[in-house]
Amino acid sequence: MKLPTLREVGTEAKLLLIGIPVFIWTMIPIYHMFVFAISPKEDAFTGKLWPTHPTLHNFSIVFHQQHYFLRDFWIQFWNSTVIALAVGALTLFVATAAAFSISRLRVPGGRAVMNMALFTYFIPAAFLAVPMYRTMGSYGLLNNHWSLILAMVTIAAPYAIWVLKQASDKLPVELDEAATMDGATTLQLFRLVYVPLMMPSLVAVGTYAILLAWNEYLYAFLLLSKDTDITLPVALGNFLAADDSPWELLMTTGFIYALPPAAVYYAFKRYMVGGLTAGAVKS
Amino acid sequence: MAITLSASDAPSPPLSARLSPPQVWGIVLLAPYLLVFLAFVVYPVGYGLWLARQPASYVALYNDPIFARAAVNTLIFLVIGINIKMLIALFLSGFFAQQRPWIRWLSVIFILPWAVPSIPTILSVRFMLNPEWGVVNQLIFKFTGDDGPNWLNDPAVALAMAIGVHIWKSLPFWTLILLTGRLAISHDLYEASDVDGANWWQKFRYITWPSMQTLYITCTLLSMIWTLGDFNSVYLLTGGGPADLTHVLSTLGIRYLRLDQLSLAMASIVCAMPFVLPLVYFMMKRLSR
Predict the structure, then answer these.
(1) What SS3 string covers A19-44?
(2) Measured between CB atoms, does B117 come within 8 Å of chain A?
(3) Distance between CA atoms of residues B43 and A134, nearest Å
(4) What range defines the domain where residue B189 resides?
(5) How many domains does chain B have?
(6) Does the beta carbon of B90 lie under 8 angstroms from any beta carbon of chain A?
(7) Is residue B10 a part of any domain in this protein?
(8) What percent of chain B has pLDDT over 90?
(9) Average pLDDT rounded to a whole number, residues A251-266
(10) Are residues B36 and A176, on separate chains, in Cβ contact within 8 Å?
(11) Which of A71, A162, B172, B247 would bridge with B240, disulfide CB 3.0–4.6 Å?
């Protein structure tokens, strides 16, 4: 066995000197949340780094909705799920159709629409929230799940269209020409050639829209208000309303809420990194 | 392509005479997005601008000390916070470019803040900083016997904490982007410079930075635009408090909205536009190439 040289040990030590603080910095808020989730109520406030009696009791309270703040947990979980999936599906539909139309059919004015979409993408969402709230009011959609779904589609679609357009510009034109020579109609071209070839990008865009909707707080809290209508993040925010709110239950609920998107992210990381981050900023 | 497709010579109705079938389909397929855009972007923005038309709103805004404070806070957040974040991201992208199994594992963990929703983690930080029961002050008490500071009750500290939360959340994303930029640089350049005996600073100065500077500047500007809309970091950590001293423009707009002062909310957003629009224009020029 060859012993490492002093120089190699030095490099490794320097790397560890960066790596360890990075690890601690990343984990602190998540670990803190986790410790609270597995601490019994009386242990939760003692500031220990590991509870003396770790327990899953908090999870049982949340799942059985045995607290005032949690009495609508499952319906809120359901709301979050339905809204996220609806936003994913609608965004995919709207964005794929638009990208196909702009990139493959070269519809007149397509470039202008692309630019308008990009413009929307860059307007900070919190700024659009103010007039959006009023607009949803005048459409009579406030406190209706459709308001949040449509608002999130509006926010997710521009980036989705842009990513899909970038990807579909790379498909060779000859493909469309060959298909039309064989007598394919435009719809067949879309369904049998375009969508199958675009699958990786479609997965990336669908995941992006679902995560965006699941994670959204501001719009959900403005547009929905009834306890049985709101999504999980809004319910988490409502814990703050009371000073004596049960923090260990809040952290447990937060932990449960954070798990699905983290799992989805890691499961689709391949697509996310390839399809989204590389497209996010062209150098 | 359009010519090959309009094969039929038969007389056709006026609309489809001017448009080939694929173009008709093009308009049909573009229609869903156009509808969304008209109903939820054009109409709200137009309505909002109409609400913000009165000069009186701007006078009221000018006389509201909270607005001036929020504008300053936003500038601090963007100019100081984002630049610190991007410098750390640039540095860490070099760290994660090192080929080690444990660094690969660390990079998987490092992405967690970006992968998990921000609300529970921000609330977790908020509770850590709680003056009475928070773990930070508990530890301070354990080791020094003194009560720790009331972290979120000092506007400067509270704003710094909000910036910290923002950095915690979005640092992994920008590090990842800068890392892809770094990995695209040809390895031969570094090997050649090793032969010439260049030190790490010379390698960075003459190889890494020249090939990454456009990406770095683009990322910084994009991050600034997005951070303008970062509502959660401030709202969930400090709620704009103490005494409305830590608001940024995005939380201030929502505060006016909650107080039913819609014209003030829109006016405060319109005031931000002279800074936002040049950035947006620049980004659009870069992305629509």
Answers:
(1) HHHHHHHHHHHHHHHHHHHCCCCCCC
(2) yes
(3) 10
(4) 65-287
(5) 2
(6) no
(7) no
(8) 25
(9) 91
(10) no
(11) B247
